[in-house]
Structures are given as structure tokens and as C-alpha cells.
Design a protein that fits this description.
Shape: globular
Structural class: alpha/beta
Number of helices: 9
Order of helices and strands: EHEHHEEHHEEHHHEH
Low-confidence stretches: none
CATH architecture of the largest domain: 3-Layer(aba) Sandwich
Strand content: 5-15%
Number of strands: 7
CATH class of the largest domain: Alpha Beta
Helix content: 40-55%
Strand order of the largest sheet: 2-5-1-6-7
CATH topology of the largest domain: Rossmann fold
Largest sheet: 5 strands, parallel
Length: 201
């Protein structure tokens, strides 16, 4: 067996540019596990999970299809309801994550894109933590330009997330996405060099 693969966590509040940064790591040969994408996939394609959510949150599933907007209305701003949803979804995500680790055991490093890393106290499972950050006015502008997003919905999401300055303090590395893409790419390159990974895989 080879050496233990380095596990990196990528986190940051909504609208900070995590997806953009994750793609940069992916292009450098780092395998990426996107927790949110996995949840979206499960909620669209896993019949047992969809059924369980429909049972717990009546009115969110029609003909085997989950209405994510309707589900969001039932859980955003209601901590106990959100907890109930996470209890249903979490085991399936864990299973997908185990499969991902197994499948990529020969990668130089694994990057886990986890928006609520600190909020769920998951940081101890990783070797290094990378926080993606941007000035608050840029963050708001990005998020409010998304389809279906409102200031009220954004505030509800932010109320669940640790403050950006607190996340920056806890990070091993910070990627500032407030500038242009080339500046962000340079920061990612610096992190890869520092960790000794990403040199052509």
C-alpha cells in the first residue's frame, strides 16, 4: 500500500467562489468531493432517500420527485427541521464519500468541498483547511444575482454560517476571490506548491 493520501478541506460561506476554486484544484490533478453536488444528486436520483424525505416533510415529494424549493422553505430558518433533514441525508453522503476515497486512493491529494465544515465541527478529519473568502459586498452581489435568491433567503443562509473572519482565522490557507481569476489561480498554485502536490498529478 502507498502512503496515506493527503486530505484537504475546502470551505467558505455562500458566494465566496468555492466551486471556482475547487475546479482549479481539480485541473491540477486533485480529486474533488463536492458534498453539495452529492446531496443534489441523491435528492434527484435516490428513490429511498426521496421517499424518506417525503415521509418526514409532507408536500415536498410529488410522483417520486423532490421539490427542493419547497423543501428549502420548510427547513431554512428552522434549526430542528434542518437537523431532521440532515439526519436523513447524512448517512447517504457518508457512504458516497467512502466510495470516493476508495476510488481515488492513488490521487496525490483529495479535496473535500464542505460549505459547513466548521459549523458541523468536521475540521479534525482533514490534514489542511483552505478557506475561500471575498469582501462582503462582492459576496452579496454574487449571491443575489442567482436565480430565485432573495435578500431574506440569503440572510437565513448566512445566519447558519460562521462569520467569514472567524473562518479565516481557523484556516491553514486562505484563497481571496475578490480580485480577478488569474490572481485566484496564482493563490491556488502557491498552495499546491507549498503542499508539494499537483505537479502534473
Amino acid at each position: 500500500m502507498g502512503s496515506v493520501v493527503m486530505r484537504l478541506a475546502l470551505t467558505g460561506s455562500i458566494g465566496m467562489g468555492k466551486s471556482t476554486v475547487a475546479k482549479m484544484f481539480e485541473r491540477a490533478g486533485v480529486a474533488v468531493f463536492d458534498a453539495d453536488a452529492v446531496v443534489r444528486d441523491l435528492q434527484a436520483n435516490d428513490p429511498a432517500l426521496i421517499f424518506a424525505i417525503g415521509e418526514r416533510f409532507p408536500g415536498t415529494v410529488t410522483n417520486g420527485v423532490l421539490d427542493r424549493e419547497r423543501l428549502a422553505l420548510k427547513v431554512l430558518g428552522f434549526p430542528a427541521e434542518l437537523e431532521a433533514l440532515e439526519a436523513i441525508v447524512h448517512p447517504a453522503v457518508q457512504s458516497a464519500r467512502t466510495h470516493f476515497i476508495e476510488k481515488n486512493r492513488d490521487a496525490p491529494a483529495l479535496l473535500f468541498d464542505i460549505p459547513l465544515l466548521f459549523e458541523t465541527e468536521g475540521e479534525n478529519a482533514f490534514d489542511k483547511i483552505i478557506v475561500v473568502s471575498a469582501p462582503p459586498e462582492i459576496q452579496r452581489e454574487r449571491v443575489l444575482s442567482r436565480p430565485g435568491m432573495t435578500a431574506k433567503k440569503l440572510d437565513a443562509i448566512l445566519s447558519r454560517q460562521m462569520r467569514d473572519d472567524e473562518k479565516r482565522k481557523r484556516a491553514d490557507f486562505v484563497v481571496d476571490t475578490g480580485g480577478d481569476l488569474s490572481t485566484t489561480e496564482r493563490q491556488v498554485g502557491d498552495i499546491l506548491s507549498c503542499l508539494g502536490i499537483g505537479r502534473g498529478g
